[in-house]
C-alpha cells in the first residue's frame, strides 16, 4: 500500500466560523475525528500526488463547537465549516505559530460577516482588516503580493488625476492672465485633453462590469455616458456653444470633482486612510453635482435652437432606410426622461455611499 500523504488544505474565517477546503477528489473511506481543539482527517482520493491515502491533523488555535460544525464531500473537495465557541478573529488557524507547508490561506473566502446578507455590498479582509491581510500575505508568500488588477487601477486613477490636474491648471493660468475674456476660449484651450480623459472614463464602466471595482455599472454608465453626450454632441459638435461661459463652469465643476475622486481611489487601493479626503470625496458632490447638472441642462437648452437651425444629426425623409430622426426632439427627450432620472439615480447612490462611509464609525478593528 502507498505511504500516507498530506493534502493541501485551504482555510478562511469569519468572526463566527472557520472554513476548510481539503483538495481531494474522488474521496473514499473518509474518516473524520473532530473535537474542540483537534481535527483529524484520513481519506483515500485524488490529491496533488495522485490517487493515494491522505491524512492531516490540526491542533486548532481556539475551541470550536463540534456539534454545530459540519462537513460535506463534493466532487472536487471536502468542505468543513467549524463553528467557533466564542466569536472573534483568530490570529492563525493552528495553536502552534509555525504554519505547516500544506496549509494555505483561501483569500477568496475572507470577508466581513456584517455584510453577508447583501451580495452587492460584500467587503473583504483587505478593506476591513488591512493589518491582518498584510500579515497573512507575508505568512503565505513572504511578501505583500500585489495583483495585476490593483496595479492597473492605481496607474489608471493616477493618469486620470494628472489629466484633470492639467486641465484645471491650464484654465487657472489662462484665467489669471486673461480674466473673464478667457471663458470664451476655454474649449479651444482644453477641449482636446478633456475629450481624451472623458473617453478613458468608459474604462470605469468596464471595471465595474468585470469586477475590478465594486461600483455600480449602471451608475458608472449614467455618469460617463451623460458627460460624453454633453461633451461630444452638445459642445464639440456645435462651434457656437464652445464659446459660451457655461463651458468654462462645466469643465471647472467636472475637474474639481475628479481631482478629489481619483486620489481617494488611489488611497483606497494602497490602503492609506486619509479622513479628510474621505470626507471631501463624499461631501463635495452635494454642491458640485447639482451645479454640474444645471450647467449640462443649460448647454442642452441653448443648443436646441442651434440644432433646429442647422439640422445637424437630424435625419429626414426620404432616405434609403425609411427612417427619420429629429435631433432637437432627442435633446428634449434626453432632458425630461434621461437627465432628470439620471440626476436622481446618481445622487441617491452617492447619498447611500455617504451614509455608509461617514455615517458609521471609521474606527477599524485591529489585528492583535
Could you walk me through the main structural features you see in this protein, from its secondary elements to its overall organization?
Its EC number is 4.2.1.134. InterPro entries: CS_dom, HSP20-like_chaperone, Tyr_Pase-like_PTPLA. It is a multi-pass membrane protein. It holds the Pfam family PTPLA. This protein is of the alpha+beta class and 368 residues long. The chain has two domains: 9-105, Immunoglobulin-like (Sandwich), CATH 2.60.40; 148-345, no CATH class. It has eleven helices and eight strands. The strands form two sheets. Strands 6-7-2-1-8 form a five-stranded mixed β-sheet, with no helix packed on it. A three-stranded antiparallel β-sheet has the order 3-4-5, with no helix packed on it. Helix 6 (217-236) crosses helix 10 (285-310) and helix 6 (217-236) crosses helix 11. The chain is elongated. The two termini are 45 Å apart. Mean pLDDT is 86; it is low at 112-123 and 361-368.
Strand and helix layout:
Layout: E1 9-13, E2 17-22, E3 25-34, E4 38-47, E5 50-59, E6 70-73, E7 78-83, E8 103-105, H1 125-128, H2 130-141, H3 148-178, H4 186-200, H5 202-209, H6 217-236, H7 239-242, H8 245-269, H9 275-281, H10 285-310, H11 327-358
Parallel strand pairs: 1-8
Antiparallel strand pairs: 1-2, 2-7, 3-4, 4-5, 6-7
Helix pairs in contact: 3-4, 3-8, 4-6, 5-6, 6-10, 6-11, 8-9, 8-10, 10-11
Amino acid at each position: 500500500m502507498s505511504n500516507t500523504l498530506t493534502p493541501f488544505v485551504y482555510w478562511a474565517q469569519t468572526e463566527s466560523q472557520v472554513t476548510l477546503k481539503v483538495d481531494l477528489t474522488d474521496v473514499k473511506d473518509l474518516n473524520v475525528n473532530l473535537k474542540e481543539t483537534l481535527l483529524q482527517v484520513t481519506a483515500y482520493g485524488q490529491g496533488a500526488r495522485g490517487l493515494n491515502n491522505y491524512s492531516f491533523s490540526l491542533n486548532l488555535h481556539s475551541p470550536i463547537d463540534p456539534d454545530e460544525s459540519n462537513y460535506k464531500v463534493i466532487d472536487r473537495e471536502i468542505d468543513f465549516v467549524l463553528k467557533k465557541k466564542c466569536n472573534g478573529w483568530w490570529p492563525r488557524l493552528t495553536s502552534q505559530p509555525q504554519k505547516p507547508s500544506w496549509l494555505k490561506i483561501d483569500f477568496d473566502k475572507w470577508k466581513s460577516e456584517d455584510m453577508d446578507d447583501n451580495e452587492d455590498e460584500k467587503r473583504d479582509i483587505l478593506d476591513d482588516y488591512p493589518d491582518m491581510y498584510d500579515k497573512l500575505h507575508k505568512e503565505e508568500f513572504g511578501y505583500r503580493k500585489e495583483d495585476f488588477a490593483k496595479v492597473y487601477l492605481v496607474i489608471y486613477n493616477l493618469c486620470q488625476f494628472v489629466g484633470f490636474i492639467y486641465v484645471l491648471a491650464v484654465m487657472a493660468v489662462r484665467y489669471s492672465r486673461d480674466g473673464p475674456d478667457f471663458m470664451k476660449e476655454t474649449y479651444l484651450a482644453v477641449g482636446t485633453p478633456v475629450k481624451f480623459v472623458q473617453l478613458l472614463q468608459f474604462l470605469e464602466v468596464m471595471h465595474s462590469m468585470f469586477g475590478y471595482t465594486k461600483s455600480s455599472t449602471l451608475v458608472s454608465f449614467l455618469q460617463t455616458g451623460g458627460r460624453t453626450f454633453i461633451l461630444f454632441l452638445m459642445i464639440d459638435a456645435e462651434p457656437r456653444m464652445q464659446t459660451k461661459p457655461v463651458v468654462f463652469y462645466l469643465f471647472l465643476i467636472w475637474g474639481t470633482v475628479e481631482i478629489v475622486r481619483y486620489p481617494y481611489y488611489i488611497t483606497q487601493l494602497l490602503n492609506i486612510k486619509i479622513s479628510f479626503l474621505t470626507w471631501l470625496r463624499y461631501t463635495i458632490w452635494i454642491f458640485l453635482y447639482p451645479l454640474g447638472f444645471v450647467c449640462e441642462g443649460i448647454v442642452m437648452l441653448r443648443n436646441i435652437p442651434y440644432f433646429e437651425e442647422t439640422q445637424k444629426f437630424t435625419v429626414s425623409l426620404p432616405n434609403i432606410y425609411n427612417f427619420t430622426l429629429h435631433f432637437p426632439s432627442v435633446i428634449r427627450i434626453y432632458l425630461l426622461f434621461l437627465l432628470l432620472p439620471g440626476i436622481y439615480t446618481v445622487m441617491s447612490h452617492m447619498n447611500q455611499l455617504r451614509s455608509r462611509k461617514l455615517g458609521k464609525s471609521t474606527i477599524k478593528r485591529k489585528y492583535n
